[in-house]
């Protein structure tokens, strides 16, 4: 008899202890790389070990090197934590170990993802029949959406890119805001379009693409893709997607929206105006592992037109059993072949929260971000952006002091955030993306930031 209980019980106990400790744990890694190597390294094991001991040793070894991003006082990057239902479903997804590439390989995974896809389309208010692929993150969602775009704009120009590649193809112009996320550039590299295909469009002081500049840059014909953004990674600002779609479609361009965290504003009745007209775009990239607080790795690509997505992604092989009855073979939607059934934790996350619960996360992250910004502003700290969603950029007098405050806050441990550069100036970037963050987290964190600032100013 295989002993599953031993290692799984060890994992369960370690997991619940970790989760229970999050609210009071210092928010930052405590171990150096050298200490981690010492705790975890050593010679290649020459033979087997007891699985339960392996799990205990692993958990102990990594403990001090974990960045507790599930904490309510973690404001780094744009991360998000994990809700109980999505985390538990993620464990089961691993247990069931389904290969979600084909209907035949897991009818359950295919149907769960089909249902989840419909729910997502309804949540975001996108056109019925929009196709959804469950990818690893917004990086791959941008890649996949842009692959569909590449197919379609070249097909309209009489070119079959899947068959003939890009050598000799009509050039594609990719019009994207100067403050686009770097994963757009990386996706274009992966797609063989290269970063030189980008026509950078001027942005305003919040990082929003300027519609007049886009209007000027669009050409009357030829393959064009416009990359809009719903939620700038620094300011949280939203491009005016409605206007952008009208201008772009008028010239036959495809509109792809990077809404890694911002697309979720669509779920909030009070913030929905930020994404006005978003349903007019052709493809969207977003994350479930940010605002929805599903464990990594969980991104979503949505495409209003199924055929270009299928043409860009699908694969036929003699040994594959592809479904003839119209059931969902996810490799028609995804760049992966074999893959984890990552729609299952998304399903559980949505089911547990419901529409109102998701809207509540979006609204609370917004309210908490505003509270953070207002508290710091009331103490003389410069807030550099309009806090329209969950992102706050603050600056302390100059670049040098700003960087030192970021480092001091990270070392102090009450909360954790990272630095950035916004329009040439160093800034501290606060992202409220965790479903547990409440008023006391904000108040404690703001107090810690102000205390670090005071100490540095006195020194
Ligand atoms: C986080 C983010 C991405 C990249 O998403 P991953 O999930 O890390 O792949 C892309 N665009 C924006 C605007 C983001 O915030």
Automatic annotation (TrEMBL):
PTM N6-(pyridoxal phosphate)lysine: list the residues: 290
- Keyword Zinc-finger present in the record's keywords: the answer is no
Q: Which cofactor does it need?
A: pyridoxal 5'-phosphate
Q: Name one Pfam family in it.
A: Pyridoxal_deC
Task: Tell me which InterPro entries the record gives.
Answer: Aromatic_deC, PyrdxlP-dep_de-COase, PyrdxlP-dep_Trfase, PyrdxlP-dep_Trfase_major, PyrdxlP-dep_Trfase_small
Single GO biological process annotation from the record: carboxylic acid metabolic process
One GO molecular function term? aromatic-L-amino-acid decarboxylase activity
Cited SUPFAM superfamilies: PLP-dependent transferases (SSF53383)
Per UniProt, the keywords (alphabetical) are: Aminotransferase, Decarboxylase, Lyase, Pyridoxal phosphate, Transferase
* PANTHER family from the UniProt entry: GROUP II PYRIDOXAL-5-PHOSPHATE DECARBOXYLASE (PTHR11999), MIP05841P (PTHR11999:SF70)
* Protein family: Belongs to the group II decarboxylase family.
Q: What is this protein called?
A: Aspartate aminotransferase family protein
Q: Which organism is it from?
A: Kribbella pittospori
């Amino acid at each position: 008899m295989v002993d599953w209980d031993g290692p799984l019980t060890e994992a369960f106990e370690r997991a619940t202890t970790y989760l229970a400790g999050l609210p009071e744990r210092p928010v930052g890694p405590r171990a150096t790389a050298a200490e981690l190597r010492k705790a975890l390294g050593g010679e290649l094991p020459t033979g087997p070990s007891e699985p339960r001991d392996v799990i205990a040793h692993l958990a102990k070894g990594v403990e001090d090197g974990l960045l507790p991003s599930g904490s309510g006082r973690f404001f780094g990057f744009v991360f998000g934590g994990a809700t109980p239902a999505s985390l538990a479903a993620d464990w089961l997804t691993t247990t069931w170990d389904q290969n979600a590439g084909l209907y035949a390989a897991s009818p359950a995974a295919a149907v769960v993802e089909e249902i989840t896809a419909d729910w997502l389309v309804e949540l975001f208010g996108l056109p019925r029949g929009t196709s959804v692929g469950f990818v690893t993150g917004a990086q791959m969602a941008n890649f996949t959406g842009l692959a569909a775009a590449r197919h379609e704009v070249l097909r309209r120009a009489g070119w079959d890119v899947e068959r003939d590649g890009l050598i000799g193809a009509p050039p594609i112009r990719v019009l994207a805001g100067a403050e686009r996320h770097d994963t757009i550039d990386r996706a274009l590299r992966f797609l063989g379009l290269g970063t030189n295909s980008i026509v950078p469009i001027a942005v305003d002081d919040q990082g929003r693409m300027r519609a007049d500049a886009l209007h000027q840059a669009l050409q009357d014909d030829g393959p064009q893709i416009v990359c809009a953004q719903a939620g700038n990674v620094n300011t949280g600002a939203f491009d005016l997607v409605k206007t952008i779609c009208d201008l772009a479609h008028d010239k036959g361009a495809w509109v792809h929206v990077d809404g890694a965290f911002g697309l979720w504003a669509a779920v909030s009745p009070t913030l929905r105006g930020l994404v006005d007209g978003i349903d007019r775009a052709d493809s969207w990239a977003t994350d479930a592992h940010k605002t929805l607080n599903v464990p990594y790795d969980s991104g979503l690509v949505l495409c209003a037109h199924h055929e270009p997505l299928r043409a860009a992604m699908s694969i036929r092989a003699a040994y594959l059993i592809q479904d003839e009855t119209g059931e969902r073979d996810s490799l028609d939607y995804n760049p992966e072949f074999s893959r984890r059934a990552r729609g299952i934790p998304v399903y559980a996350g949505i089911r547990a929260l419901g529409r109102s619960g998701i809207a509540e996360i979006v609204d609370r992250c917004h309210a908490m971000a505003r509270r953070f910004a207002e508290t710091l502003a009331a103490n003389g700290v410069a807030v550099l952006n309009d806090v329209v969603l969950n992102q706050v950029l603050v600056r302390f007098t100059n670049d040098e002091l700003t960087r030192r405050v970021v480092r001091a806050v990270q070392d102090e441990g009450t909360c954790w955030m990272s630095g950035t550069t916004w329009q040439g100036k160093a800034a501290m970037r606060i992202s409220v993306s965790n479903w547990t963050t409440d008023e006391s987290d904000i108040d404690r964190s703001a107090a810690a930031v102000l205390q670090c600032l005071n100490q540095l100013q006195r020194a």
